[in-house]
Write a structure and sequence with these properties.
- This protein has a domain of 262 residues: Type I PLP-dependent aspartate aminotransferase-like (Major domain) (Aspartate Aminotransferase, domain 2).
- Helix content is 39%, strand content 12%.
- The protein contains 13 helices and eleven strands.
- The strands form two sheets. A seven-stranded mixed beta sheet has the order 1-7-6-5-4-2-3, sandwiched between helices. A four-stranded antiparallel beta sheet has the order 8-9-11-10.
- One of its GO terms (molecular function) is pyridoxal phosphate binding.
């Protein structure tokens, strides 16, 4: 075991030492799949095989010039925590055999403090924002069923007319969650956005709620849209509940971290009024993939949906009995990297990180706005930049955008992803990695210009 750990440490150190020079994106070849060995290579042999076949083609997605999706890196403290998750290999179901559930409960408390949520919010770690949205919408479904006299978790949806869901600019995972929940993708009605924005027009949302004529429904508000990092007016949306019955779910996967900074906190005013909240951990929190948080005041509904009844399980439901509160039964201690990084850097560390990354995004947006090769499509509100390619006659079509991005990927100087904004083929840049410095953004900008001038 000591030799295996030593060689693994050496490989990790080698990778991390090269992370800033590693291409942000690589064009990996299609390898022929290997056959299962009869006798096996052993742990060290497997490591050598991996290094030879796969390691050269790993991208620099953990590095400072990967601006695709909304991906953070891994802070040193989070990396330490994540390694120990596998070493300790605790099953965080909520039994009294280990302190692991208490670690998760404490970590949720630290996150509540980071986001300024009241103590009555409970929470749990799930595998990602998709599952956090799934949990929030499952609670909304259960709540709406109760308003109509049906326990959806026990009886299903058969006795109900379709439950309506309203959102101005939902993330794609919301549609996926609705499909998994049996509510169906077509349950979601898109409500109008404010002119030139991805934020909900709350007045138009109210018109949809009026047409419900008192029937319960679900509203999904956004705190940070994917394309332009726009924010719904959460206070105004929540105020509508005084007149209309609906469950308010807020998808704050990465925009929720605006609460860390006094400068950006006004963007998420009213977050505490939500019935359920999604926040992702592999974004601004900068912990490894496979971690997000869901928050709610309604642990009772959560237990109705996810309670796992078996003779060999404790039937008691409390805040750290996660087997009764989340989709997963067996659960790794995925809260530990978050505990490590929150404890290591604290409120001030995350306020600095958010403000620094947002300032760098502002700088990149200003360069794009002043360049004839590009067209900035929306103001830079937080850490995301959305822009189109310009060719003198207008915006470049999607095939041209994809060709440009393939060139950037081959160049390796920066990695960006495509999108469509207001019907315009576009590119997204998201600055979320704790490692990013001014020098990194300048190098990325040079690569972007090289690609546009080819």
């Amino acid at each position: 075991m000591d030799a295996v750990l030593a060689e693994t440490l050496a490989e990790a150190a080698r990778f991390l030492a090269q992370i800033e020079a590693r291409p942000a994106g690589v064009c990996a070849p299609r390898l022929e799949a290997a056959q299962l060995p009869e006798e096996g290579l052993g742990a060290l042999g497997s490591l050598e095989e991996f290094k030879a076949r796969f390691a050269p083609w790993l991208s620099g997605s953990a590095g400072p010039r990967y601006y695709g999706l909304v991906t953070g890196g891994v802070t040193p403290a989070a990396l330490a925590g994540d390694w120990l998750v596998s070493v300790y290999d605790q099953n965080t179901v909520g039994s009294d055999e280990s302190i692991a559930p208490q670690i998760e409960l404490e970590t949720i408390g630290l996150l509540r403090q980071l986001f300024g949520l009241p103590d009555e919010f409970s929470g749990a770690f799930v595998t990602g924002a998709t599952m956090a949205n799934f949990v929030g919408l499952a609670l909304g479904r259960q709540w709406a069923g109760h308003q109509l006299g049906v326990d959806c978790a026990a009886q299903g949806l058969w006795g109900l007319e379709p439950l309506r869901v309203f959102s101005a600019c939902p993330h794609s995972s919301v549609y996926k969650a609705l499909a998994m929940l049996g509510m169906g993708r077509e349950a979601l009605t898109l409500t109008p956005c404010l002119p030139g924005r991805e934020a909900a027009d709350v007045g138009r949302l109210e018109e949809h709620l009026k047409r419900q004529e008192g029937r319960p429904c679900v509203v999904v508000a956004n705190a940070g849209t994917v394309n332009t990092v726009d924010f719904d007016d959460l206070r105004a949306a929540a105020a509508l509940r005084a007149r209309y019955p609906f469950w308010l779910h807020v998808d704050a996967a990465f925009g929720g971290f605006a609460a860390c900074s006094p400068r950006y906190a006004p963007l998420v005013e009213g977050l505490e009024a939500a019935d359920s909240i999604t926040i992702d951990a592999h974004k601004f929190l900068n912990v490894p993939y496979d971690a997000a948080m869901q928050f709610t005041r309604r642990t009772d509904l959560q237990a109705e949906v996810f309670q796992n009844a078996a003779a060999y399980l404790d039937a008691q439901v409390r805040a750290d009995q996660y087997i009764h509160l989340t989709p997963e039964n067996s659960r790794r201690l995925r809260a530990l990297p978050s505990w490590f990084t929150l404890t290591a850097y604290g409120k001030q560390g995350y306020a600095e990180m958010v403000e620094r990354l947002c300032a760098l995004a502002q700088w990149l947006g200003a360069q794009i706005e002043g360049a004839r090769e590009f067209h900035l499509l929306a103001p830079v509100r937080l850490n995301g930049v959305c822009f189109a390619l310009a060719d003198g006659a207008g915006c470049v079509p999607m095939e041209g955008v994809r060709r440009y991005l393939r060139g950037l990927q081959a160049d390796g100087g920066v990695y960006l992803t495509p999108t469509v904004y207001a019907g315009v083929p576009a590119v997204r840049a998201s600055l979320t990695n704790w490692r990013i410095t001014q020098k990194d953004v300048e190098q990325a900008w040079e690569a972007m210009l090289r690609g546009a001038q080819r």
